[in-house]
Amino acid sequence: MNTLFYSRHLVHPVTLLSVAHGDKENIAAMSWVSALSRNPPLLMVAVSPKRYSHQLLLDSQEFAINILKDNQNELSTLAGTHSGRNENKWESEPFRKLRKTATKIGVPVLKDCLAVFECKLEQHIPTGDHTLFVGEIVHSESQTEANPLVLFNRQYFQLGNFVSKYP
Ligand SMILES: Cc1cc2nc3c(=O)[nH]c(=O)nc-3n(C[C@H](O)[C@H](O)[C@H](O)COP(=O)(O)O)c2cc1C
């Protein structure tokens, strides 16, 4: 197996990382996202230092993870193929319409998506070619009737068939 492509064998959520600092704001697609701790509620996101979001996150010390629904793949592609260095993605049509103010932190978040987790940066760990950002969830909202967009082998999927309950 080519280890360069090991992550293609893992199933990922499709999320948008939202950050803002001063008059700068940004939104970028992030799939290397995972739960980390129940108490306190921590989640992690692995962000490459090449991303515009990376420095903004270090500066602001807070961020939101917006979990996309299974019909929101175009939002992911838009936020994941353009950089906030060159344009404010929040000003583009789809994001402008979906924008709302977060409850506990100073970043814009999506008003329609599967879930929003507002986080305060707990720590960051430079590791390999990404930085692991650990956030403590200070506020969350979710739509229980919606399903997540899934990334596998660099392609977007909807959830498949129900198999069985987790014991
Ligand atoms: C579906 C998808 C998932 C992505 N996941 C990540 C990720 O987990 N970490 C990362 O650093 N970049 C990831 N990217 C790449 C960034 O979203 C992309 O480089 C984006 O343009 C960065 O925007 P920024 O420069 O405005 O921060 C992903 C892109 C896509 C399309």
Descriptive report:
This protein is mostly beta strands. Helices cover 14% and strands 43% of the residues. It is built from 3 helices and 12 strands, in the order E-E-E-E-E-H-E-H-H-E-E-E-E-E-E. The chain has helices at residues 52-60, 73-81, 93-98; strands spanning 12-13, 15-21, 24-30, 33-37, 42-47, 62-67, 99-101, 108-110, 115-127, 130-142, 150-152, 155-157. The chain has a 7-stranded antiparallel β-sheet with strand order 3-2-6-9-10-5-4. Strand 4 (33-37) and strand 5 (42-47) form a beta hairpin. The protein starts with 11 loop residues before the first strand and ends in a 10-residue tail after the last strand. The relative contact order is 0.23. The model has no long low-confidence stretch (mean pLDDT 96). The chain binds flavin mononucleotide. Flavin mononucleotide is lined by residues 14, 26, 28-32, 46-48, 51-53, 76-77, 80-85, 130, 151.
Based on CA atoms alone, the radius of gyration comes out at 15 Å
Provide the spatial order of strands within the biggest beta sheet: 3-2-6-9-10-5-4
Largest sheet: 7 strands, antiparallel
Principal-axis shape equals globular
List the ions, cofactors and other small molecules found in this model: flavin mononucleotide
